[in-house]
Amino acid sequence: MKLSILDYVPIFEGRNATQALNHTVELAQLAESLGFYRYWVAEHHQVFSVASSAPEMVMMSLLEQTSSIHIGSGGIMLPHYSAYKIAEQLKLMEARHPGRVDLGTGRSPSFKNVNHALNETKTKTISYKTQINDLMHYFNDDTNHNHRFKGLQATPLITTKPSMYILGMSKQSAAIAAEKGLPFVIALMGQANHNTENVINHYRDLFKQFHPQSESYVIISTFVITAEHQSLITQLERAFHLWLVRISYLDQPEFYPSIEFAMHRQLSKREEDKMNHNQNRVISGLPTDVMKKLNDVALRFSADEIMIQPHVFGETHRKTLLKLIAKENMTE
């Protein structure tokens, strides 16, 4: 199975952003040595417990300190930015590291105040589909096409181009990916499986209509928790679910909770209910069981690739998780 990684760059209790970013570099290097295909970085604003507010900055650091693994964004929330500027940033990375740069884009608006802060200087709203068109225009150095910025090229001018991916949960996003002939990335976020299946089928059906001579490509992303012993898995689950509940608070926590903090935290009834509701947002268990569940997901949705999110507490536990998953994948 082709396996990849999506990293939120968590800031653990007792750690700071510098340590979190340094750990992400180490984890990407480990992922490369273990044979993971790509390593992506998420984008989150006003979430104090992660250090991934500018994935393009983290990407360049990872590209400079790895040699073969694909590095990308999972994803850059395009409506917040100029497609022209994003194209220049990604082409600069591609110039330094040809054939290794992935641009995953989404359109989540984030928190209301974040959305306002990122868009306050804009004079008009550009549709997401138009921005995707713009990016493809800039990456292809297309000067002849009747583009709204005719003759404008994103520099540097290079002979290769970054790979583009559309992230989404809806049929609307799937339709854009299909029409543009781009891979589609969808997360298992606890929604009913039939909804995921419907969105993926919609993407594949439209892709065949628009591009009958090409192959569609589906990546499914999911949180994963595993360790060598069930007792530790249970503790890691507790810390993960407490983090997941607390990031929805207006008063954001400043760190990803330690196992000790999570095990001793007295939960409110609301928190308990929310944690129970979130149970199916993560694939968890002993390594063999997790690998079986990942294979079941890949088989059910005919996924071309699975992207795991190793969002567990502790640098050592994250590294062990990757090693265990890679080992299980080799025995398949």
UniProtKB/TrEMBL annotation:
<comment type="similarity">
    <text>To bacterial alkanal monooxygenase alpha and beta chains.</text>
</comment>
<dbReference type="GO" id="GO:0005829">
    <property type="term" value="C:cytosol"/>
</dbReference>
<feature type="domain" description="Luciferase-like">
    <location>
        <begin position="1"/>
        <end position="274"/>
    </location>
</feature>
<dbReference type="InterPro" id="IPR019949">
    <property type="entry name" value="CmoO-like"/>
</dbReference>
<dbReference type="Pfam" id="PF00296">
    <property type="entry name" value="Bac_luciferase"/>
</dbReference>
<protein>
    <submittedName>
        <fullName>LLM class flavin-dependent oxidoreductase</fullName>
    </submittedName>
</protein>
<dbReference type="GO" id="GO:0016705">
    <property type="term" value="F:oxidoreductase activity, acting on paired donors, with incorporation or reduction of molecular oxygen"/>
</dbReference>
<dbReference type="InterPro" id="IPR050766">
    <property type="entry name" value="Bact_Lucif_Oxidored"/>
</dbReference>
<dbReference type="InterPro" id="IPR036661">
    <property type="entry name" value="Luciferase-like_sf"/>
</dbReference>
<dbReference type="InterPro" id="IPR011251">
    <property type="entry name" value="Luciferase-like_dom"/>
</dbReference>
